[in-house]
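Q: Is it fine to ask for two folds in a single conversation?
A: Yes, each is treated on its own. Send the first.
Q: Here.
A: Result:
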Amino acid sequence: MSKTVKPYDSDESKKEQMSKMFDNIAPWYDFLNHFLSLGFDISWRKKTISALRKFQPKYILDVATGTADLALEAHRALKPERIIGLDISQEMLEIGKVKIAKKGLSYAIELMAGDSEILPFQSNTFDAVTVAFGVRNFENLELGLKEMNRVLKPGGHVAILEFSSPTLFPFKQLYNFYFKNMLPIIGHITSKDPKAYSYLYKSVQAFPDGKQFVELLEQIGFKNATHKIFTLGICTLYLAKK
């Protein structure tokens, strides 16, 4: 089981703290994602959705959808019949709804508030489940993965994009210095919530990435689990089948 890391020093559950944190940083979330990743996050999302193209999913659930960037990319690249994006942060969802409406896609992409660990859908509902930078924030990682497996149709696929820890010298050292020391400063200046970006580094360090996460997916019940590293190990795409 992954170590529990929370953004704030309070008695609130991780789930409550995550909702509060993302509500706090929602107005700056998209800008900081692109700025702090030097724009690589856009290509990472494209590659994540591209990995599902050969399966031609028609009904997609985007868990921890945030401001709906991955859901929008899924619609652009795959043209499914329906996408539902679910997130615990209402402020993030409101920004996502505006982005979807501006593109005239409200008919195809629905956003809703909900708990990723208690998905409000019947079993065997979706052809694909996607997550970008979200599973690391689950209070109970195993429970969240089990829920994804439950709502997938037999033969359906899950695509999970998540930060990971580089291992190549000296990139590993430079990466750790930047994420541990520089990123919280930038986050404080822009979003006024330095705890959110201190949490990012700590949560990445605690996350069971690479082969460990592949093994966890298989323990949960997924099949043919694989992982592919992007940008010298900054993030990893995990793909598996129900």
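Q: Second one now.
A: Result:
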Amino acid sequence: MLSVENISSGYGNKQVLYDVTFRVNEGEIVILTGGNGSGKSTILKTIYGIIPLWKGKILFNSEDLNQITTSNMLKKGIIYIPQKKNYFEYLTVEENLEISGSIYTKQELISRLEKAWKLPKLYKNQKRTPFNLSGGERQLLAFGMGIIHNPKMIMFDEPLSGLDNENTAIILDTISELNANGTAFIIVEHKHYSGLKFDKNIKLETGKIRV
């Protein structure tokens, strides 16, 4: 599904990634682990075109992703959920979901919202703002904003960071359920969690894959 071939990238003149290569097959869960500054988040941002690709190639179903816009990424079924700033803090949960789905017709959006409302705790909080939600509830909102696009692949940056046991379990169950229905994942974490089944653990160190 996704082929990352010898990519290098960074910020300004600072190189962060050095010739990184890996693949994600359909329905796989791939974990990117490593310490702070190892390049995990930079990989996701490079794939999604948030920062420029310096060298290499990124293919999704054999199509080159370089120069593709965010809206086209959504249409291709690729979702990126950053660790921070992944919602509008002073809009309600419902408004956040509607903005995320604004590329669809009203009728399409109604159908897609039904999937999001099935997430635990989300529907009951639809009139509240993220400012008044717990960390776990905010992550569920970010998840909901992603799954309304019927994604083929979700890139999720540290979805479990700072969550209590209850919300960690909810996020892991949601990932497992979506994956069972065919959604592939690339998940950034400092470590892998025992409750999260995965197909590959790609370990990074100073911008390179550690063998």
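Q: Anything structural to flag on that second result?
A: Two points. The chain has a mean pLDDT of 90. The first strand starts at residue 2 and ends at 11.
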